[in-house]
Design goal:
The complex is a heterodimer.
Chain A lengths: L4 E9 L3 H11 L3 E3 L18 E2 L4 H23 L21 H46 L5 E9 L3 H15 L4 E6 L4 E9 L3 H11 L2 E2 L11 H54 L3 E2 L3 E9 H15 L4 E5 L10 E2 L11 H4 L13 H16 L2 H17 L3 H25 L6 H4 L13 H29 L3 H25 L4 H22 L3 H14 L1 H23 L2 H35 L9 E2 L8
Parallel strand pairs in A: 11-12
Antiparallel strand pairs in A: 1-9, 1-10, 2-9, 3-8, 4-6, 4-7, 5-6, 8-9
Helix pairs in contact in A: 1-6, 1-7, 2-3, 2-6, 3-6, 4-5, 9-11, 9-17, 9-18, 10-11, 13-14, 13-16, 13-17, 14-15, 16-18, 17-18
Chain B lengths: L1 H37 L4 H9 L2 H17 L1
Helix pairs in contact in B: 1-2, 1-3
The chains are: A alpha+beta, B mainly alpha.
Chain lengths: 632, 71
């Protein structure tokens, strides 16, 4: 249901504007509506007082900029700080955000926290670098010992692929040529793929060696830039030592940050909230209008909250500020914010609607229909007691673990409804992991989906017909409610046409008397003429589209049959192999079918709503309700 | 012979419509992924667009079933 809204204006003397805005923010129910830039009042209407937008000037603009900066800095600090284990207030006090001493106090706290954060980032970066070299270092350490004490030489580390052992021989051959045999080459396997090699040559050959390696496409070990001026051997030793030291240093900095968080988190959060609230109030002023002596605040309030807001304003300002409630006209509907309210069991299905733009004010909230038909379609497609029970178990587990927070709760509520629907349809179709139900004595109550495919198709199309007719009927109701006579007549004619077509088909199949079918058939022509007269020559195409929409519900049957067939394949596969392998294969195939059986019906059921059902009545373009309220 | 032709017809009904759906979805899917990357608020529209060509394979399946059961 879409909650009724009221268009309100709050009027009062100019000097009470700030207090009024503060009062309205505290109540948190009014969604502000900006005054248009140019007043609509014609210039020749001299009797009307011109209301102009209140501009932010001088000090107010400076204040806005300052609050913006403060809010941004506070937000960044809060992102740096870890979640405190417990809040300690020893020394963690901040003055009011608008006070003169706040910037200097914030700067002190900021520099303390930022310094710690920068140290932590530097250490983490160093740790990442060292970790990258760790495997290499571990392999090369024994070789380093052999090179200890060597002077006037340059050591170069290279990596050679183990599947190309000839490369090492070629390198050695070239190095011998360059250095005329004055070199040391030590190698050790780093991992399954690479061999680490330490080449020590006199310093005068170092440049030529590097060029050779580059030309041969051999990977030279590039050590971190900060160690660039150090000899290779010294660097490796330093890196090894740092790899042992860094974790302790990081833990120390993090502990310090945690202590800082315990001390500063709460005061910073409070200051951030205050800054945000003040900023919102300042910006609210710029959305109000003023005359020479009075102000006017316009906005939207849920009608049910209007009386209370009026009373609060009346009491706070002793009648000096007035709240006027106006009727909302249809031309305002595009601007009115939308609040949905549904029973607790239906509310989670609003999540499925959130993928689309909210319904326009004055139209229909389709959430209750989603709550009814979505699980029905899902159950019809999955329709298996076994899969339903597994899904229900997983959903209960997810709910117990609290996965996904508030959204997770909504998703699991929808999933519970879908799982129960799958179990109910599983009983009706006599399916437990496919035809295993038959083997344990569960027989179909409705029909066997694998065998009675035409009947299943009839059921799917019948349900589709009901769903589409309901959609057209809701479209008719919306048009009538909004006084769109021509549209209402077109919807009524479409409805009559679909019903006549159904009656004709039912009479042909022998479900209704043939006389009724003949009457319906005769009515089709005149109804089509009426529809063309109202909607033009494209009306028959619309009718074809509507009939196509009904046929689209055949997917309920298609996915249902596919699901039961896959389950049967899984069961039959078990018989092809020895018992252990057979059962494993069957379980794996059932798992695949289960995942597909949960995902695909959800998408298809959603699509049937979005494309086939909503197309008949849903009017999107609603604005979300964002009341002017305190951040806390 | 007639049974074989019926089987072939059913296979063509589902096979050709599957190829058509796959081709359409590949185009829509690629464009949709790009759309969501730039405008996440359009994901609902993208899901709808992506699911639209599935009607072809569904109707192909229905035709195949009708051929097999009525043939």
């Amino acid at each position: 249901m879409i909650v009724g809204m009221s268009k309100v204006q709050v009027l009062g003397p100019r000097r009470l504007l700030t207090e009024t805005i503060q009062c309205l923010q505290g109540q948190g129910v009014l969604q502000l509506r900006s005054l248009p830039d140019e007043p609509k009042t014609p210039n020749d209407d001299k009797d009307r007082v011109k209301v102009r937008r209140i501009p932010l000037v001088g000090a107010e603009l400076a204040n806005e900029r300052s609050l913006e900066q403060i809010s941004h800095r506070l937000h960044e600090l809060l992102l740096i700080l870890p979640v405190p284990r417990e809040s300690t207030r020893d020394g963690g006090e901040l003055p009011d955000v608008t006070s003169a001493e706040f910037p200097s106090r914030l700067e002190a706290v900021e520099s303390e926290i930022r310094a710690l954060n920068e140290r932590r980032l530097a250490l983490q970066e160093e740790r990442d670098v060292v970790t990258r070299y760790e495997r290499l270092l571990t392999a090369l350490v024994p070789l380093l010992r052999a090179l200890e004490g060597t002077t006037h030489v340059e050591t170069v580390g290279i990596l050679v692929r183990r599947d190309r052992p000839e490369a090492l021989g070629l390198v050695e051959q070239e190095v011998t040529r360059i250095t005329r045999g004055a070199y040391t080459m030590l190698s050790r396997d780093v991992d399954k793929e690479q061999t680490g090699v330490l080449l020590t040559v006199p310093k005068e050959f170092a440049h030529e060696l590097s060029r050779l390696l580059f030309e041969q496409g051999i990977t030279e070990i590039r050590l971190p830039e900060r160690y660039a001026d150090q000899p290779f051997i010294t660097t490796l030793g330093l890196l090894l030592r740092r790899s042992r030291e860094i974790p302790g240093e990081i833990a120390e900095v993090e502990a310090e940050l945690l202590r800082g968080s315990g001390r500063w988190s709460e005061p910073l959060k409070q200051a951030h909230r205050t800054a945000q609230d003040r900023l919102a109030r300042l910006r609210a002023v710029a959305r109000c209008g003023e005359t020479e002596h009075a102000f006017v605040i316009s906005g939207w309030v849920p009608t049910e909250r209007c009386a209370r807001l009026t009373a609060v304003v009346e009491e706070a300002f002793q009648g000096r500020v007035t709240l006027l409630e106006h009727v909302i006209h249809e031309e305002d509907y595009d601007a009115v914010p939308v609040v949905l309210r549904n029973p607790a069991l239906v509310r989670p299905f609003e999540l499925l609607l959130s993928l689309l733009s909210p319904p326009r004010y004055g139209s229909i909230d389709p959430t209750p229909f989603l709550a009814g038909f979505f699980p029905l379609f899902f159950g019809l497609m999955l329709g298996d007691v076994g899969y339903g029970v597994v899904a229900l178990g997983l959903v209960i587990l997810a709910r117990a673990k609290g996965w996904g927070g508030e959204t997770g709760r909504k998703v699991t509520t929808i999933a519970v409804a879908c799982s129960l629907s799958a179990i109910v349809f599983g009983v009706l179709f006599g399916e437990v992991f496919g035809e295993l139900g038959e083997r344990i004595g569960i027989h179909p109550i409705l029909f066997n989906r694998a065998k009675a495919v035409p009947t299943f198709l009839g059921l799917a199309l019948g349900l589709g017909g009901i769903h589409v007719v309901l959609g057209v009927a809701l479209g008719l109701w919306t048009a009538l409610r909004q006084g769109e006579k021509e549209k209402a007549l077109a919807k009524a004619t479409t409805l009559a046409l679909i019903l006549a077509a159904f009656l004709t088909i039912l009479a042909r199949l022998g479900y209704v008397p043939s006389a009724l079918g003949t009457g319906a058939l005769w009515a089709l022509g005149p109804l089509l003429v009426v529809l063309i007269a109202i909607e033009g020559v494209l009306a028959p195409l619309e009718i074809m589209k509507t009939i196509g929409n009904v046929f689209s519900y055949a997917r309920l049957m298609a996915l249902g049959v596919a699901s039961v067939m896959l389950a049967e394949v899984a069961n039959e596969m078990a018989g092809f192999f020895p018992i252990v392998i057979g059962v494993t294969v069957a379980v794996l195939l059932h798992a695949v079918n289960f995942v597909m059986g949960c995902f695909s019906p959800a998408i298809q059921a959603l699509r049937l709503h979005y494309v086939e059902f909503f197309d008949k009545f849903y009017r999107d373009g609603g604005r979300p309700y964002e009341p002017f309220s305190l951040t806390s | 012979m007639e049974r074989g032709l019926l089987m072939l017809s059913a296979a063509l009904a589902i096979g050709v419509s599957s190829l058509a759906t796959a081709w359409a979805q590949s185009r829509i899917g690629a464009a949709g992924a790009g759309t969501i990357a730039e405008k996440p608020e359009l994901r609902g529209t993208v899901i709808i667009m992506l699911a639209i060509p599935e009607t072809m394979v569904i109707l192909g399946f229905v035709i195949a079933v009708m051929i097999l059961f009525r043939g």
